[in-house]
Design brief:
Helix content: 25-40%
Number of strands: 10
Structural class: alpha/beta
Distance between the termini: 33 Å
Radius of gyration: 16 Å
CATH class: Alpha Beta
Strand content: 15-25%
Number of domains: 1
Largest sheet: 8 strands, mixed
Length: 204
């Protein structure tokens, strides 16, 4: 659906946040996806709309709550990692993930890939996670080992997965997929961050 900002309809990236969410894993994505001049707006939500504390200790007040979110209300569902996924928490978001599959893209990084593994969403598509065996260790019913790829980030179309240190690759796939940059500019953006090259030249 998108948000109406300054009388201009924007696409929406819905970000699920919770106590201990790994803010560093999605910060590059949200910074560039929601920056001034893009077609995207960032909308955060927590289970009950309550403020949460990120892994780095930042106190974050979300825009809304889980009960207010439907796939028709956003264009991308972004799931950051965090220890709660390994602890078997965050189950309340599973129905939204199920409802989103096939309607909107889902991007999950690090521990958030466990939710997709638990729901069987990685059993028949190429994907990655923190390391081989990570998904099976925490998701006994996971059956996608034959499609696991030992890569930083895997874009399977409607589902993007990444390991916890693939912050740049994760952001690149999302920015490229949603046309924030053209193909060549997106590659230049990726190389800029990977190489630590001349920053100003990218904006020329």
């Amino acid at each position: 659906m998108g948000l109406i900002i300054n009388n201009c309809k924007k696409k929406t990236c819905a970000v699920f946040i919770f106590d201990g969410f790994a803010d560093q894993e999605i910060s590059l994505t949200t910074a560039w996806l929601g920056r001034k001049g893009t077609e995207f707006a960032i909308e955060t939500f927590s289970t009950h709309g309550q403020p949460v504390t990120s892994m780095s200790g930042m106190r974050v007040t979300p825009h809304t709550s889980l009960k207010m979110m439907e796939p028709e209300d956003f264009d991308l569902l972004l799931l950051p990692g965090g220890e709660k996924w390994k602890e078997g928490d965050n189950l309340e978001i599973f129905p939204l993930i199920r409802a989103t599959v096939g309607k909107r893209p889902i991007a999950a990084i690090c521990g958030a890939t466990l939710a997709l593994g638990d729901l069987g969403l990685l059993d028949d598509i190429p994907h990655t996670s923190n390391f081989p065996g990570f998904l099976k260790h925490y998701c006994p019913d996971y059956a996608g080992e034959h499609l696991y790829q030992a890569m930083p980030c895997v874009n399977a179309g409607n589902i993007i997965t990444a390991n916890g240190v693939a912050v740049i690759e994760f952001a690149y796939e999302i920015l490229r997929t949603f046309g924030v940059f053209g193909e060549q500019k997106a590659q230049e953006w990726k190389e800029l961050y990977l190489s630590g090259g001349e920053v100003m030249s990218f904006f020329e």
